[in-house]
Amino acid sequence: MPAPTAAKDRLFVALDVASVDAARRLVAKLGDTISCYKIGLELLFGGGLDVANELKAGGKTVFLDMKLLDIATTVKKATANIARLGLDYLTVHGHDRKTLDAAVRGRGTSRLKLLAVTVLTSLDRNDLREQGIETLSPADLVVHRARLALAAGFDGVIASGQEAALVRAAVGPDFLIVTPGIRPAGAETGDQARAVTPLIAIRAGATHLVVGRPITAAADPKAAAAAIVQEIGAA
Question: One of 29, 56, 60, 67 is an active-site residue; which one?
Answer without folding.
Answer: 67
